[in-house]
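User: Could you write out the 3D structure of this protein bound to iron/sulfur cluster? I've included everything you need below.
Assistant: Certainly. Input first, then the structure.
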Amino acid sequence: MKYRKMGSLPWEVSALGFGCMRLPSKGLLRGVNEKYAIEIIRHGIDRGINYVDTAWLYHMGHSERVLGLALKDGYRNKVRVATKLPMILVRGEDAFDKYLDQQLVRLQTDHIDVYLFHMLDQGQFAKLKRLNLMDKMEKARSQGKILHVGFSFHDTLPVFKEVVDFCKWDMAQIQYNYMDTAIQATTDGLRYAHQKGIAVVIMEPVKGGQLANPPAEAMEVISRAPVSRTPVDWALQFLWNLPEVSCVLSGMGSMKMVDENCSSADASGVGSLSAGENKVIEELAEVYRKKIVVPCTACGYCMPCPFGVDIPQNFALLNNKAFGKSGALSGRVTQWMITRNYRKLAKSKQQLAARGNKGRATLCTRCNACVPKCPQHIRIPQELEKVKAAFS
Ligand code: SF4
Ligand code: SF4
């Protein structure tokens, strides 16, 4: 494992962080396969990961609990733990202590190493200021319940700079990957935070898995590259090449992913990519920008839909349909499989129970309950119309 500077903090962070948002799941409603999740988290730590990231909202509350179990038997002392105040659920200033105290219990620890305000955008930032939540944060720090202070972010560059300038942050967590250099915090924001000594931790390095499953045109770019890498490795090395990046979080759901990503991190370094390799990444970004229909990262924050629509799955199928595959026959087979997967989704209330509440876009009533929860600001009901049209 390679280790990198964590902004101005006096410790180094592993290049790869374990994101506990996409733990191996089983059953309905993103339940966690606990035994396997604990196994892979511990394996990642054994391979050198020293930073684990979770949140109140992940896996509908089970991520923190399972991480707490994984960190027993001496593993807690080997890592820094980051978790987050669920800003979208905060209604009053008392909420800060209420959530933090429960998180300490869930995680079976006496302190959180890095505590973040989760999903700051303009609205949540206004709430943070209105409820004086930074005072609460500082009080918790003085009590030793948290050690470092940060935020995760989903809005535009001007808002990002406003948040960065608001107080002395230890870290900022941003969505950044080779496709998203000009949206959300952007490259300018990454540099801005870094210049201020703030550790920048990256989320969505493979854009919710989209960069791991390239369309045919992207695979052609990869096959012509001067170095042989997997699609995921290209995406990760792009980030580790940058001096402004402290740690890259990956939501890992299998032992294979942990091993592959740890091996990628072992081979990483600032400025390690050649001009030719950087050119490959530019070409890949260009291909993806032309292909993606809906920029859904499958974070699941919009779920559950009260009418049973499996929102991320519908968008994934739409994007996959647009990506296609090379070759006339394989293209037709791929399209047939994607359509078949859409048809496996429930199309009626009666089918929802039997199919694990995984419903088609056609079940959307346009109630708009999901819209404010989406960090990508996707107009979900309108975009679901595209899914309906594509699979009608
Ligand atoms: S707008 Fe549609 S997808 Fe969103 S919560 Fe309402 S029914 Fe579900
Ligand atoms: S629609 Fe938005 S909130 Fe829902 S999974 Fe996609 S990115 Fe996440």
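Residues 3-291 form a domain with the TIM Barrel fold (CATH 3.20.20.100).
User: Perfect, thank you.
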